[in-house]
Amino acid sequence: MRGLILLLATLLPLSSMADSGLPFLKDMAGDRDLPRPWGIGFDFYTMDQDYDITNLKFVLPGVSIGNPEDIAVSNEVKHYDIQADAWILPFLNVFGIVGRVSIDTLVDFSEADIQGLPPGIGLGTLPVSFNGTVWGGGFTLAYGSEKWFTSVTTTFTKTSTSGDLDSKVNSTSVQPRIGLLRNGFRFWVGGMYLDTDEEHSGVFDLGIPGLNAVPFEIELKSKDSWNYAVGAGYAFNDRFNLSLEAGFGNRTHSLLNLNMRF
Q: What predicted TM-score, i.e. pTM, was given to this entire model?
């Protein structure tokens, strides 16, 4: 919450800078209408995806796990943030974000080849759930005309977590889009490349007498790098616009964005 307040306090003076000269090199756009240079936005984002295990360690004497690929890992994300952006050049927008995220990851050992446990006893499912503060930034490269546009957005984020687990989450996403502009509406198709790395360490409660505090370390990575996306947006005027996007494939996502420009 402190990060959100600091970001808003930083943005308040920008309303007096609307005529600051941004974007630079306006002549590159010719007689095209350019968006207002400064923006504040709100994002609500959800995602479901599968992970691969890149490293797994646990302290359970006499017990070993075969191929880590037999362990199914699913991940659900709910994320909201405030975003500040500026058009530095007619084709270049830069932005910073701060927000909150809730992540639920399930590591399912039911199909894993586990050696050393008594008959009829399995490791079950390891839940890794936490909340955190997301910090990040990125840039968008865009080009278009009055009837169409194309863009590529690159975003880098890092999540600071709190709770019983020691966790690190870093991600990089790249979103290419191509779309149409019609009477204030925008329609686009594209995709999302996502590279997410999670690291967690803590104690796994097996619920088995004498085995209810097993230390573990696990490193996870996105199983699928790409998914498809479609979206639509509407500009109410040159200050307010709303957009929705849905992603599908082996990874799914949804994004709601409300943006105000000045």
A: 0.87
